[in-house]
């Protein structure tokens, strides 16, 4: 009895050892095979569904719609106090400008698959209505350049409050997302109005046009450099910087929205880039520079913040 019991216990231990070894080999084999070996019944882990990849930015959009203000309409680029959309940085056909649409779509494509809904004098509050028109086209890309007129008022006190500016921009993007959820958005920063004043104040013809009512919050009394005038211009510049912060922050919430990273705000428009009629709006050459910056931003592998 004692011997049988001893053999029984020894045999049992041997079986347990073999089973344990086999189990260890099985586990090791599973790891070595990358987890493809079947697990014992009842122990298979349920695979978690992989997250669906979000939409990826298309650097070669097939159509372009533009919304915004006088800059996108080519105001004062061809003649005094007049729109000239053919030289628009966004959708114009002018060969010297080589607009964003032409660079992306070619001349023929730009003629049939780009649309300009910008309105001279418009402010951010007007953008939702423009965006509604753009969304109806289901464009692959919508360019946005607006905000200068929110700062360019008859006085600094009348500038659009930052909160209102934000609300209108958020509404504009929601409008586009509702009407054309697959459309990409490229948002251009508001130019540095104080730098434009410093460039244009040396031109007597330009200053005469300024007196007709162009951006008085910044351009009134252009030769004044006293403390009050300096404080007023600084206040306008600070508001423009706040607007650009809003554009950056709101755009960042949307996967298919790119901000230009402040490229236009930081660009130093020289004499050649300013209208010969008002020394404030972009000339043909200025429009071409805007088109270059936009093309780089749209076709870049990564967004610039």
Strand count? 5
The secondary structure category is alpha/beta
- Outline the biggest β-sheet: 5 strands, parallel
Strand content: 5-15%
Fold blueprint:
Blueprint lengths: L1 H31 L31 E5 L31 H14 E3 L10 H10 L4 E5 L2 H4 L10 H18 L4 E4 L5 H8 L3 H7 L5 H4 L7 H25 L5 E3 L3 H4 L17 H16 L6
Helix pairs in contact: 3-5, 5-9
List keywords for this structure.
single chain, 305 residues, alpha/beta, Rossmann fold, five-stranded parallel sheet, globular, disordered N terminus
Summarize the structure.
This protein is an alpha/beta fold and 305 residues long. It has helices spanning 2-32, 100-113, 127-136, 148-151, 162-179, 193-200, 204-210, 216-219, 227-251, 263-266, 284-299; strands at 64-68, 114-116, 141-145, 184-187, 257-259.
